[in-house]
Amino acid sequence: MKDIKFDPNGERLSVSFVFEGLIVASYSFTLWEAESNHRLMYEQGNNQNSDDDKYDLPMPVSSNNGRLIQLRTDFVGLDPANSKDYSITAQVFQGGIDLGNESENGSITGKTQESLIYILLKST
Q: Containing domain of residue 94, as a range?
């Protein structure tokens, strides 16, 4: 898990997901309330369409302190003999400025694979 710091008085936070490599991926994104099992946001998507894989986090910005971003991805490589590597990245932005990211990189096996990324948001 990675901690990413943000300005609680700054512009709106957003999270974006990037899928690299010759993979078909579907994902679920959960934003968990700080110190709670309460789910604030739950979104699903895939990398096979032109829709953005980007989501604005709740306002006010300061309310995101201690919240947990979870990205769960199921994927399969389309051509494991020729395309061997993948990368799945969750990026956090504030007002369009990249605050940091957490990635999982690996080798495509030709079978169904999973990825799980966590980011803890902390105000400065």
A: 2-123
